[in-house]
Amino acid sequence: MGTDDIDDFPNRLEKILDVEQEELNSSKRQHHTDWDNHIITLSTASLGFTFAFLPIGSGTCFIVAAIGVVSFILSICFATANFIVADRGFDVAFESLILRRKHALKIKSCFSELKTSLIDAEARGDNTAYDAAKTQCSAQLDTIGEETDLDADLKKQNKINNNVSLLNKAKTYSFITGTILVVVFTFINIDFLGK
User: Fold this and answer.
1) Which of 6, 98, 181, 185 would bridge 115 by S-S if both were Cys, CB 3.0 to 4.6 A apart?
2) Is the torsion defined by CA of 13, 15, 19, 21 positive or negative?
3) Residue 107 · residue 17 · CB < 8 Å
């Protein structure tokens, strides 16, 4: 292994982490923009509901309207919860990235020490010093690997992803139910107004 190879691995690792951090930052910015747009849309829709309802006729008509409005309210609640859970997912991803960056710095330090030992060993013609440095670097890399609990990070991220998926389904079905019931309510009211 030459000194160029020793420098190459930590530098590639750092570049990978830089790209991942930029993607996370970009995704989080987009997430917050979507969240702002979502809140504005919901506020506008709520204001529209205030002025849009036709007079409620019979008991059945009232029940249809009430369930429709409750469905829309549930859809809004699920959507808002979805944004909060997704935001927590970004926090978990950033925590994982920070931890992996710390480990990358330790790896870079380990490889830097290995490079120094290689240069010293070559200058003295002492292969045993280089072999000892390789063994020490390997042991340090094993320790760094043991410090990283990637399974725990993956479990956290999977749990958040499952919750986001569940909330996506809940808000979609609530919205569809609300839309159908408000359309039914409107047709019932049109029928009452026509009589």
Assistant:
1) 6
2) positive
3) no
pLDDT of 51: 47
Phi-psi region of 58 (alpha: psi -120 to 50; beta: other; left: phi over 0): beta
| Spatial separation of the C-alpha atoms in residues 167 and 173, rounded to whole Å | 10
Q: How far apart, in whole angstroms, are the C-alpha atoms of residue 175 and residue 71?
A: 6
CA dihedral 24, 29, 31, 32 (to 10 degrees): 140
pTM flag (> 0.70): no
What's the pLDDT at 52?
57
Residue in the block written with tokens 């139910």: 177
Closest listed residue to residue 130, CA positions, set 144, 113, 105, 107: 113
Report residue 156 as tokens.
């956290």
The residue type at 158: N
Residue with tokens 């410090």, as numbered in its chain: 147
Report the 10 Å Cβ neighbour count for 117: 20
pLDDT of residue 192 exceeding 60: no
Q: pLDDT for 117-159, tens place per residue?
A: 777 777 787 777 777 777 887 887 777 777 777 778 778 888 9
